[in-house]
Amino acid sequence: MDKFLITGPCKIKGQVSISGSKNAALPILASTLLFDKPVIIKNLPRVRDIDTMLNLLESLGSKIQFSKNKKIVKIYKTKKQKYFGSYSILKTMRAGILILGPLISKYHKSICSFPGGCVLNGNSGRPVNLHLNALKKIGMKYEIKKGYIHAKSNGKLKGTTIKFPKISVGATEQLIMSAVLAKGKTILKNSAIEPEIKDLTNFLKSAGANIKWIGKRTCQIIGVDTLSQTTYSVMGDRIETGTFCVAATLAKGNLIIRNFNPNVIQTELNILKKIGAKIKTSKDKIHIQGPQKIKSIRNITTREYDGFPTDLQPQFMVLLCKANGISSITENIFQGRFIHVMELQRLGAKITIKDSTAIIEGNVNLSGSEVMSSDLRASAALVLAGIVSKGKTIISRIYHLDRGYEKIENKLKKIGVKIKRLS
Ligand code: EPZ
To answer: CA dist 76 to 58, 207, 256, Å?
Structure first.
């Protein structure tokens, strides 16, 4: 298993180009199951979760054709459509469950394994009850047998009004995709409004879907008979962008971040400004300079968009270890998302957890050590910590990082980080 060796502390300077968003591309790829005509998707990030989704589509009978650099795919149907989402593929990635709604909507049947994915929610796992309950409301019937969801519908799904009892990114995506070919009008209330969801709806609209946001969290979908051929470019990855912004702020860096619309991450940029970063933005560029002294901050709280994202919580925690006082971060989305704290403590971080709040002591000297990745964003936090730790940090299990960050070591090397992949 590959490891990263980082020799710190490192200076950060230069330019980095942001890849396509993994979390936007995954539902877009799943929704290609709704099409009869070919679809071309551009700006795909070359990360493992995308390969997993493409393998899943192939296992369902889709034909995948790559461009030379593999960032553009053409996806089209074969005559051998299948309806079986196997455990062997779905256990590795939670977003695999997003094939369920499209299969039921288009073909009215599916047998789909319960998904796996990053362990973020302590002992409560990562349930799919919100997906299943909402799909039931638009006409899906299902039984659970031996870890598989056996689902079907009597012909087309039927539009209705659904109010999600809790905001969920995945359940919102699942229902938008399912409603696009349903009979009549579906209204989704209390929907998630993450930019990746807007990217999914923009993609579907480019193929003729009738989708309108009629309130901040209310989405209206009027079913159409078919979707037409389309070409679509996936938005930039806001979590990758946020991770590089933290790197620059942490390491007193001077970084230009390209290919990303800064308006999407205003909440994060405002926090970085408050703690001392100098930030200039233009249409698709962020110029960020880290301060000599990082200011501490209380009460960063993770929330659904347009609040502060849980997927940047571990990275910001590293930043606050270097602030000039005590800071705190409260995690509201996933109960168990503090596994990285133990590993950061190995490097010298002083963090205590009280319920869902982490209290972070600033001004600590981090020093290199051996640490282990536990999930995707926790791994990114360890890389950031390695950048400002004195000496050698060895991070094992970096396959977590490979799931969601495209060529991260190449991008980091180019801006001055001494990082090496040990195979
Ligand atoms: C998406 O996961 C993202 N994944 C996650 O990114 C991200 O952390 C999360 O949204 C929150 O922003 C993708 O987009 C592929 P949720 P998702 O449903 O859809 C509970 C990363 O690092 N819940 O919004 O799984 C759930 O347990 C990943 O890139 C239920 O109770 O998140 C959580 O507490 C990790 N029942 C909360 O809702 C359900 O049926 C929000 O989860 C579904 C969710």
So the answer is: 10, 14, 38
What average pLDDT does this structure show over 382-405? 96
pLDDT at 1: 87
Torsion angle in degrees (nearest 10) through CA of 293, 298, 302, 303: -120
Nearest CA to ligand 1 atom 27: 126
Q: Which two tokens stand for residue 162?
A: 């659904």
* Residue identifier of the C-alpha nearest atom 17 of ligand 1: 170
Q: Tell me what pLDDT residue 13 has.
A: 98
Question: What values do phi and psi take at 314, rounded to 5?
Answer: -65, -40
Q: Which helix (H) or strand (E) holds 288?
A: strand 285-289
Q: CB–CB of 331/356 below 8 Å?
A: yes
Q: Point out the catalytic residue in the list 10, 112, 118, 219.
A: 118
Give the integer Cα–Cα distance in Å for 91 and 422: 26
Residue 124's pLDDT is what? 60
Please count the CA atoms within 13 angstroms of the CA of 64 that sit on its side-chain side: 23
